[in-house]
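Translate sequence into structure tokens.
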Amino acid sequence: MSTTSKPATRSGAVTVIVLAAGGGTRMKSKTMKVLHPISGRTMIGHVLDAVASLRPHRVVAVVGNQREQVGPHIQELLPEAVLAVQETQDGTGHAVRVAWEALDPADRTGTVLVAYGDTPLLEGESLRAFAEDHVAAGRGVSILSGVVANPHGYGRVLRDAAGEVTGIVEQKDATEEQRAVCEINSGILAFDAEFLDGALSRLTNDNANGEYYLTDTVQLAREDGLPVGAFPIEDVLQTEGANDRAQLAALAKEKNRRILDRWMREGVTIIDPDTTWIDVDVRLEQDVTILPGVQLLGATVVAEDAVVGPDSTLKDVEVGAGAHVVRTHGELAVIGAKANVGPFTYLRPGTELGAGGKIGGFVETKNARIGDGAKVPHLSYVGDAEIGEGTNIGAGTIFANYDGVEKHRTVVGRHARTASNNTFVAPVHIGDGAGTGAGSVIREDVPPGALAVSAGPQRNIEGWAVRRRQGTAQAEAARAAGSEATED
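Result follows.
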């Protein structure tokens, strides 16, 4: 055992080890714990985003259980990350040793920060402050700690009478007096790389769990005469992990509360925060208004003065300035400035609504470009279509885009006026300024300015109700109005 006293390395180089190998059995899920989503990212996605703000020299992610799920996801988010496989989960000390061995020896310098993949509230600013404090103090080990009212289940940070950190004791190994301590170890630690390199091989599993505790490095650093300290984080919830679905839901609610609070402070009106959910990658401009029952998901962007809601879900949707979106479900769609959508509207991927346009009640659109000022006001399906500027599509219109084998496209020109209950059988082109008659089935192109009708002349069969519906209220009403039974 080394007894050499020396200052820790002062270096700007930071290596981050993210522990993500645990099974997460309490989740009772076929999805690995760290891959469960919160606010539009996986839990580990939030952690990697916080880690990236450090501009680390290297990131090593320790994977184990279901690594065929976790590894590719990590490398998709952070392609330069090194993956280290922990075949058996023998404690945090063992996990860090696996990560250390995966690093090139030349990279084992500077500061090493150890984080966990299931702490989605973690912020990059907090990690930066912690790492900077560790380096400035020249410590061998630094502990990101916090003071909580109920420390049950956490490792306790132990201090002497002078307030110096003397060690960390896990819940199962703590005495009654130690369990009364309210300063907890978050699990996030910072090390001098040279010290860590020697300390990992000195860890033992002589404890209640038979595991290699990374926290035992605190005592080893003290034995080596190296400074040890704790950096209390005021917002200790940032270090909170999720072990089951109930804890996951609680963290999701807290994450969402923080997101909403930030947007309201930046000039967004959110009428009912209790029923509003906004993902972390959503972008909102000042004077946006969000009404109750709204979910803004993915990479949705809402421009100034737009109003969304009530009761709307938008995922990866662009909403233009001054637009109104009411009771709408939309995905991968674009809504132009001052356009109106809803209520009870379904915007499927590929929908583009121009400035000042309208997609109204009970309308479904898919892969459709609807020009500036164009309107599809009522009860219609618009699929694989292009509708020109200023055109109005009548109520109850169907764009029949599928022939049973392939999809085809319908083009309606500028300032066309199509009547109610039309069916456009694609591929078909309706020219600029053209019109269609009510109830028409349009199977052929319509020239610009022409009126297309396809219904035959109306035929009335007199006396039909009295003859064919005898004994019904319909027949009695017809007879009372003077109708008599006749031959067809």
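Note: The longest strand covers residues 183-192.
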